[in-house]
Amino acid sequence: MGVSGSKKSTTVRADRRRAARRRRAALQLTVVRARLAVLQAVSPRRAARLALDLWCTPPDGAGRRRDDRTTPGTLTTVTTDAGSRVVVETWAAAGTGGEERTSRDGGPTASGSPGEAAVVYLAHGWGGWRGQLGAFVEPLRGAGFRVVAFDAPSHGDSGPGLLGPRRSTMPELADALATVVRAHGEPAAVVSHSLGTATTVLAVRDGLPAERLVLVAAIADVLGELDGFADLLRLSRPTRELLQGLLSDVAGRPLAELDVRETLRTHPVPPALVVHDRADKEVPYPVGAALAAAWPEGELLTTEGLGHHRLLRDPEVVRAVVDYVTPVRPEVPVDHDLARRGA
Predict the structure, then answer these.
(1) Whole-model pTM?
(2) Which of 17, 58, 172, 192 is 20 to 30 Å from the Cα of 128, by its Cα?
(3) pLDDT of amino acid 61
(4) Domains parsed from the chain with CATH numbers
């Protein structure tokens, strides 16, 4: 069957837009590299400060702005210890009237329910927002969970972070999750995506209680990501060392503590389901596979052809995640290699 003219036209326009974005990105990278080269020759510290600003700037893009919520929740705000305003959206468990009332600790609880429903938290990644994980909301509500999603500082609808608008850090994302949990109750599970997986693990390292974790397109080697960033910008050794020092100062802790694998070696962690696609271009599949293998009580769910973002809205992935976090596990094991189904 042939492709209609309108479909061809749409495809051509989309290809042109992608090509234009790639050209703009290449030009911007060239300009930044040139500026850094000049600064490094004059003042590596100034170059490191520019690199810090770039590292702490979340990316933008259509995939990160996508909204898969089908019904609006109840909007509230919390304030982190550092003073950042965080927007929170909550949904009552299905069958409780869909309304929320405020509990004694300031967080909403399902109105009309005989007991407080277990809570599942949704944590977006770097440059993302709560709407990206919207496909999980209704299935989780249907399974009896109250659902809580939020926007980290300088993301989505939340206020700026410590470094100002459009700037944020890993510890701020972790602190935002911990603040939301203090207001809304201990998690039955946290479902997180991309860098949100590393910040969730950081929060667990710092004492966040969670019965289960779901790590979608997980990042494990944050220091490796930093090295790749430095390579991309062609930073000199002195500039790299200064950048690491600045980042440690901003984080208020050694950078090694941000590494997921370091946490696995030194801290107890709850069981986790790692979901990763073989075609993920942002975080290669072997990263997720190795993380699942190293994780105590870790499981790996493999997908094919969904990339870094589409697995957040794939019905089979959503179903597998809900099954995993539901207390009564199905008698028939979940197929942990969804890639085989399309073979």
Answers:
(1) 0.85
(2) 17
(3) 64
(4) 63-222+257-342 (3.40.50.1820)
